[in-house]
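Sequence, please.
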């Protein structure tokens, strides 16, 4: 069991690393483009400045702003500053005198076409300015709404919530597919089915799906079941993966054992859907490949890895092993 958890932990690291590497390599993003692709870091058209001690207090100004200090006024002209006001409401008669002086902190507004970092940098160089800063945009930290999240101790232990504020599977630039080469996956499970990979190469009727919800049950799209290997990958009607154990197109675990389903759920149970559990990668696509059914017999692990690699997997979960030892003499 300990080995099992170690394997899962290694897998999770690979998943997160893969996602982060994929994003970085794909787009060679700069800091500013990351801001645009996710959430902005700073408010536009406004910065905070703090005047140095001894400079005359300023009233709120709209329109042509003047500091009555030539070096600051030239900057205000340059960036078309059209509002100046106190940044904070503060109490001049505050009871504690060890609190910082907020009275010299102002916000200034200007057209959004001027980058806030540039404006702040120029104001901060002025000898009358203690500091000048863009105003950060803050967000509530990410936490999924799945009801069993509070019972999932492994996610806080690996600080998954902190990682999710940087990246989750569902906000990747491209779909990431994780193959679960295992005992089969209960793919029509309510907390997995939305994340099951669908092979568009076998979407014979062209409706953009190979799974359908009919009569309350998730089944293979009946209009795709033509008995033909449409994508020519060597597997007939492999709509969502393959069972090497049963030589068929249904990789569901039939004869017992939830090992593969467990691995699939840890990696990518549908997350933030108000159902069941949360997963480390939220919403990666799961490609189920059945290598055994826990009943013993031949284990088709290598065949499963080859199928997964050749059919779109970015990451492959292999929570299995063996006892073979090859000596250097053999
Ligand atoms: Ca279809
Ligand atoms: Ca096929
Ligand atoms: Ca077909
Ligand atoms: Ca869920």
């Amino acid at each position: 069991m300990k080995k099992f958890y170690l394997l899962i932990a290694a897998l999770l690291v690979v998943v997160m690393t893969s996602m982060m590497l994929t994003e970085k390599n794909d787009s060679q993003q700069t800091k500013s483009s990351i801001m645009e692709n996710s959430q902005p870091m700073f408010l536009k058209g406004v910065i905070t400045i703090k005047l140095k001690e001894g400079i005359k207090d300023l009233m709120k100004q709209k329109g042509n702003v003047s500091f009555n200090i030539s070096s600051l006024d030239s900057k205000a002209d340059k960036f078309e500053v059209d509002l100046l006001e106190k940044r904070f409401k503060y109490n001049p008669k505050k009871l504690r005198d060890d609190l910082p002086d907020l009275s010299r902190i102002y916000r200034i507004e200007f057209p959004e076409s001027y980058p806030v970092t540039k404006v702040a940098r120029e104001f901060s160089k002025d000898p009358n300015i203690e500091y000048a800063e863009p105003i950060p945009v803050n967000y509530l930290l990410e936490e999924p709404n799945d009801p069993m999240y509070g019972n999932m101790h492994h996610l806080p232990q690996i600080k998954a919530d902190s990682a999710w504020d940087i990246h989750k599977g569902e906000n990747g630039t491209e779909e990431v597919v994780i193959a679960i080469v295992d005992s089969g996956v209960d793919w029509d499970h309510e907390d997995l089915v939305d994340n099951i990979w669908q092979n568009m190469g076998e979407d014979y009727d062209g409706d953009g799906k190979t799974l359908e919800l009919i009569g309350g049950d998730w089944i293979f799209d009946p209009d795709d079941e033509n008995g033909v290997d449409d994508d020519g990958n060597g597997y007939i009607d492999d709509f969502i993966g393959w069972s090497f154990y049963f030589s068929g197109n249904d990789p569901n675990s039939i004869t017992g054992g939830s090992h593969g389903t467990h691995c699939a759920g840890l990696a990518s149970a549908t997350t933030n859907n108000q159902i069941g559990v949360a997963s480390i990668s939220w919403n990666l696509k799961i490609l189920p490949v059945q290598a055994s059914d826990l009943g013993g017999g031949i284990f088709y692990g290598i065949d499963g890895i080859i199928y997964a690699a050749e059919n779109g997997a970015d990451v492959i979960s292999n929570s299995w092993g063996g006892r073979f030892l090859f000596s250097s003499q053999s």
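The pocket of calcium ion (ligand 4) is lined by residues 146, 191, 269-271, 273, 275-278 (CB under 6 Å).
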